[in-house]
Design brief:
The complex is a heterodimer.
Chain A (H helix, E strand, L loop, with lengths): L1 H4 L11 E2 L8 H129 L2 H16 L2
Chain B lengths: L24 E4 L2 E4 H23 L7 H21 L8 H20 L5 E2 L12 H23 L15 H36 L5 H32 L2 H6 L1
Antiparallel strand pairs in B: 1-2
Helix pairs in contact in B: 1-2, 1-3, 2-3, 2-6, 3-6, 4-5, 4-6, 5-6
Classes of the chains: A mainly alpha, B mainly alpha.
């Protein structure tokens, strides 16, 4: 339909080719517009992209710095942990040795105590025995003396005494 | 188009000419394909592929050059998608929205910036792929498919409940909406790009040099906006389909 009133310059000429008609291809204006877009568009786009790149770079740097910081903090914390662990180990070792020492000491002390108490007990027993023996001896002597005295009193009457005296005189006079 | 009737007179002058409604037809079975659209589409696809491969071939920790540029584009698309679909569901839709945006944007700008007419075809002429209604309808229908898929996948058959909300009286309008969405999407894009090209063409026809330049720059601006609008609306539709209404959100 449009063909009726719109003139078709190359209608029917056929084949693919190059059309170098400056007006028909609008080449002049297109070149200018394209140049305009390239010059100004490039400027704007370059600005935007440079800014974007800078932002990304900053973000990455920031993140990397923070990562580094975190890594060093982790390193320090690890070192502290190792130190604390070593300390704990040392304390435990010390505790173990001191416990062993205390144990041995206490054992020795207790053994000595027991020994001493035994000795003491033994000594105690000996003195008690001696004392008892002495007491018994004293009582036996006392009883024997009492019995002898009593017997002596019963046996020693006047006649016996006279007899004894007579015999003693006889003994002397017979001479 | 009747507006252009007045240009009849110019036909007799040896100035430029507008070539509308002519296509380089390719035949595929019973189908007639608009060859020039395919050629420029492949060009655009190739451009995007080369850019993505170049950007990802040697990925640096601190992006530079094309990697930086493409990352910037990706960030832009991701933010757009996130704003429309929401933090929770946006991630799987970034590739789709991004493809739409980048393809439309590069198509539009290639049409507005590159001297396609240097290459002479037997019939029709090379231009932005988006100035052909077939391209924009295809993109719009893909968007429709995408939001239906998103809705059914997220809410199952409960998605159909949105047709009777807020009141069943609106059922016809809600159904109509599913037809108007792709229609408006495709016609908006197609119309804008074709109109741009026609305006520039007509101006070139009248005054060949310098004068069309402001309109061409404006065309660049609207082209970019149209790409943004298409991608944003696609994301909005998908977001709507996923989100549903407030009270439904609580049930799930």
């Amino acid at each position: 339909m449009m063909g009726n009133f719109l003139f078709l310059a190359n209608a029917g000429t056929g084949g693919v080719g190059l059309n170098l008609d400056l007006i028909e291809t609008n080449l002049f204006n297109l070149t200018l517009v394209l140049g305009f877009v390239i010059v100004f568009g490039r400027k704007v786009l370059t600005n935007i992209l440079t800014e974007r790149r800078a932002t990304i770079e900053n973000a990455i740097q920031d993140t990397e710095a923070r990562q580094k910081q975190a890594a060093s903090a982790l390193e320090i914390a690890k070192k502290n942990l190792a130190q604390a662990q070593a300390e704990a180990e040392q304390i435990r070792q010390t505790a173990i040795t001191s416990a062993a020492n205390a144990k041995a000491e206490i054992a020795a002390k207790t053994a000595a105590d027991i020994e001493r108490m035994k000795e003491l007990a033994a000594a105690d027993t000996n003195t008690e025995q001696d004392k008892a023996i002495a007491e018994l001896r004293a009582r036996v002597t006392k009883l024997a003396m009492e019995r002898a005295e009593a017997q002596l009193k019963n046996l020693l009457n006047d006649s016996a005494q006279a007899q004894l005296v007579d015999r003693s005189i006889a003994l002397v006079g017979g001479n | 188009m009747h507006m252009l009737d007045g240009l009849n007179i110019i036909n007799s002058l040896p100035l430029a000419a507008l070539d509308v409604g002519h296509h380089l037809y390719w035949r595929l079975g019973n189908l007639q394909l608009h060859g020039q659209v395919f050629l420029t589409s492949w060009f655009v696809i190739g451009l995007l592929l080369i850019a993505s491969i170049a950007a990802t071939r040697n990925v640096q920790r601190i992006p530079r050059g094309i990697q930086n540029l493409m990352e910037y584009a990706l960030e832009f698309i991701r933010d757009l998608t996130k704003n429309q679909i929401g933090e929770k569901e946006y991630r799987p839709w970034v590739p789709f929205i991004g493809t739409l945006f980048l393809f439309i944007f590069v198509s539009n700008w290639s049409g507005a910036l590159l001297p396609w007419k240097l290459i002479h075809l037997p019939s029709g002429e090379l231009a932005a792929p988006t100035n052909d209604i077939n391209t924009t309808v295809a993109l719009a229908l893909l968007t429709s498919l995408a939001y239906f898929y998103a809705g059914f996948r997220k809410r199952g058959l409960g998605y159909l409940a949105k047709y009777v909300q807020p009141t069943p009286i609106l059922l016809p309008i809600n159904i109509l909406e599913d037809f108007t969405k792709p229609l408006s999407l495709s016609f908006r894009l197609f119309g804008n790009i074709l109109a741009d090209e026609l305006v520039v063409g007509v101006l070139v026809l009248l005054v060949p040099f310098i004068i069309p330049m402001p309109v061409m720059l404006l065309g660049l601006f609207t082209s970019a906006i149209q790409a943004l609008v298409f991608a944003t609306l696609a994301a909005v539709y998908i977001g709507e389909a996923i989100e549903g209404h407030g009270e439904h959100e609580e049930e799930h």
